[in-house]
Each structure stands twice: as structure tokens, then as C-alpha cells.
Amino acid sequence: MPPDSDALPKINGLPDPFTFMEGKRRVRNQNDWKARRAEIRQLFEKYVIGSMPPKPKLDKIVPIDPAEAARGARAGAAALLPLKDP
Q1: Maximum pairwise Cα distance, the chain
Q2: Banded model confidence at residue 2, pLDDT cuts 50, 70, 90
């Protein structure tokens, strides 16, 4: 979840995209830009879009017959769960 927008400091105007987060160092070459770009991306993920969830683990993939799907057949799989002893 992004932080509460009311708790963030108020800043008039946009920050300089070529100044690093610590505020002292500026982008001077291509390697600096790669590092600054990574900082900007982290900020964008934190405050705007959020981070990507991890890829799901796929234990079993059930193939679907394209001919059945074209006819409107329902594709589904039954799951059997082990019963626990009471």
C-alpha cells in the first residue's frame, strides 16, 4: 500500500529529475543516469503503482482442448483435498 498522502510533506513544484535523492549529487554521466532512473522507478512504485507481486507457483497445468473451448464447453478441473482425521 502506498503511504497516506496526507502524511507526506507538501512540496510546491516538481523536483529536479537530475538530482539524486540525497540532494547533493547530480547526474553527470550515463552510469549516474542509470542509478537515478532506478531511484525514480522505486519512488514511482512506492507512491503510484505499487510493486509487482511474485509470480505464482504452478504445480499442475491442465491443458484445454481448443475445439471444446470453441464449442462453448466449460473447462474445469476437480480438486481432491485430503481429509484430516477428526
Answers
A1: 68
A2: low
Total tally of structural domains belonging to the chain: 1
What HEC string does the chain produce? CCCCHHHCCCCCCCCCCCECCCCCCECCCHHHHHHHHHHHHHHHHHHHHCCCCCCCCCCCCCCCCHHHHHCCCCCCCCCCCCCCCC
Per-residue pLDDT tens for 28-84? Answer: 999 999 999 999 999 888 888 887 888 888 777 777 777 776 766 555 555 555 666
- Identify whether 37 is part of a domain: yes
On whether the CB atoms of residues 26 and 18 are closer than 8 A, the answer is yes
Quick check: is 33 in a domain?
Answer: yes
pTM greater than 0.85 (yes/no): no
Is position 26 within any domain? yes
